[in-house]
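FIELD: query
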Amino acid sequence: MAAGDLQAPGLVLGDDVVLGADLVVGPHVVICDETRLGDGCVLEAGAVLGKRPSLAPRSSAAARSGDGPLVIGDGVVVCAGAVVYGGTRLGDRVIVGDQTQVRERAFVGAGTVIGRGSAVDNDVTIGERVRIQSHVYVTAFSLVEDDVFLGPGVVLTNDDTMGRHPPGMPLRGAVLLRACRIGGGAVLCPGVEVGEEAFVAAGAVVTHDVPSRALVMGVPARRVRDVPDRDLLERWR
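FIELD: result
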């Protein structure tokens, strides 16, 4: 599709943009330089694609380096007011909810849905068919594998010192393994791993790794039983 074919009031189109076929573009969309859009994408009102980060003076050299193009697969929906940064890759059929932010160098796998007002930080990897509900914070350097569920208001963290660490000290995001489920309002401390098919109850504060198929709850979270066979993902496909 050529830029001239887009009938969108207030559209701002940067340089070196590649547009797929059959796009639907709402009013006042901004498509920044070096954005690559697949076929059949929907960009709702006020969406911003390919934004470059504004970084603090203490940001690492890696964070300051060029982030490359924003690459968006086929059939992606970027909802109203969402911002997706340059250097990010969205797989086919991803949905980015209203007013959501996806930062630089993030990867989001096919079929994943990110709910309204959520934030996916830089250098995050999210697998396929993940369900992220509204107002979730996925902190930098986290790994979220396929078929994970994050309930509303979940918070992942990555810095034990809360900003008082020496320059260059690596941050540790959470690791959420395949098909685990995190209940609404849960908080995961830096570097914790939640195992496959594990279940973290709503409001829990997870301070240690959670074994596969464990069900944990409380503050701090403690194992109370295992996830039964009837609740495994293979029974619900």
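FIELD: remark
The chain has two domains: 9-52+66-114, 130-162+171-227.
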